[in-house]
């Protein structure tokens, strides 16, 4: 409650009021007419309906919100569950980052904090899953996955549908494969109909997203750098990407198939449990189904 009540930012969903009665807490927020971002990426007639300019504006707004959480308060707020379902859209499609159920406060100079791994499979940074080490760079990783989702209109994690497959495909790996083949722009959602003048903007988004999804937290940019890049600063994108997909550190070569919560789709697993699963081999698809 302390975290929620203290945030004030145009791209963060602010608490309007609350009450506690008969052992239950009720939180009141503004009604977001356009619902959550994932509706416009994956579901029904809304799927793929967002225009290129709107998607760029959404990503820029979420980046500003995360930069504020990391640097704009007396302590750093770790959101820990950055994903499309937690980005709500106003009537004018302005993004509002929501859901602080997993958020934690840490000191600005505290460094990595050991916590039980939590979040949504596909968005959780590898160091969180396998070592339980959490910094603001875990949110950066989640934002990178979100940016790829918005650009590609593909889910962060494609679950294996047949028992014999026994493997999940991650969007991050598919985009890295395209980058290795010098086909990075082929990742873009064709339904966006990107104008020639916007192609450089989307090249920047994909470049920055892959930097955010680096397996090493130290190699990821800060959200301040990401926000500046999405608002036109070219300093970050002048840093070249690796020619091939970077290798994960020892015991980080794949994400285990985490059990999702029946209510929120989040995972909660200890670092020791995750390490026990870290010997599995990850396979790469030629493409992911939409």
From TrEMBL:
An annotated GO cellular component: plasma membrane
Signal peptide start and end residues: none
Lipid biosynthesis in keyword set: no
GO biological processes: defense response to oomycetes
Record's keyword annotation contains Cell membrane: yes
Cited InterPro entries: Kinase-like_dom_sf, L-type_Lectin-RKs, Prot_kinase_dom, Ser/Thr_kinase_AS
Localization, UniProt: Cell membrane
Gene3D superfamilies tied to this protein: Phosphorylase Kinase, domain 1, Transferase(Phosphotransferase) domain 1
Pfam family, one: Pkinase
Listed GO MF terms: ATP binding; protein kinase activity
Record membrane topology: Single-pass type I membrane protein
Keywords on record: ATP-binding, Cell membrane, Glycoprotein, Membrane, Nucleotide-binding, Receptor, Signal, Transmembrane, Transmembrane helix
Chain ranges of the Protein kinase domain: 1-236
Cross-referenced SUPFAM superfamilies: Protein kinase-like (PK-like) (SSF56112)
PANTHER family listed in its UniProt record: PTHR27007
UniProt name for this protein: Protein kinase domain-containing protein
Organism: Adiantum capillus-veneris
Phylogenetic lineage: Eukaryota, Viridiplantae, Streptophyta, Embryophyta, Tracheophyta
